[in-house]
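[step 3/7] inverse_fold.run input=structure_tokens len=134
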């Protein structure tokens, strides 16, 4: 894996070798060109007047909006929350919220139904390296 730091220096992580990085301003994606798997990061900047919710509350609201068919695992704390789930189409998802005083980061990984276990493991390993930079 290779090191990655977002252009605005809000977060850092590792990218699996061979994956394509696409930057769309507040949204950054890593995708495997050979398998149907992608990780998308959405950066939300907090201002002094922004409404603050803890990461676990953001995750709860996100899962409600996604109407997850089957939630496989949830891990929650005030600063970091994540869930593995499947949608109605059988796609596997991992959603993760990380927050600091200045940034809320949503990271989602989605994979189509025939994606290899090796690709899923690379994606999960990359997500495990995500750190906010304050």
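[step 3/7] decode complete -> sequence:
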């Amino acid at each position: 894996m290779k090191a990655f730091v977002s252009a605005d220096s809000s977060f850092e992580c590792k990218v699996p070798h061979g994956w394509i990085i696409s930057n769309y301003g507040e949204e950054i994606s890593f995708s495997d060109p050979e398998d149907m798997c992608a990780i998308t990061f959405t950066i939300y900047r907090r201002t002094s007047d922004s409404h603050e919710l803890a990461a676990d509350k953001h995750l709860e609201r996100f899962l409600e909006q996604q109407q997850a068919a089957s939630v496989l695992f949830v891990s929650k704390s005030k600063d970091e929350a994540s869930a593995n789930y499947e949608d109605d189409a059988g796609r596997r998802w991992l959603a993760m919220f990380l927050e600091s005083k200045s940034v809320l980061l949503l990271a989602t990984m989605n994979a189509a139904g025939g994606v290899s276990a090796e690709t899923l493991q690379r994606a999960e390993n990359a997500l495990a390296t995500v750190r906010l930079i304050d």
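[step 4/7] annotate
The mean pLDDT is 86.
The first strand starts at residue 2 and ends at 5.
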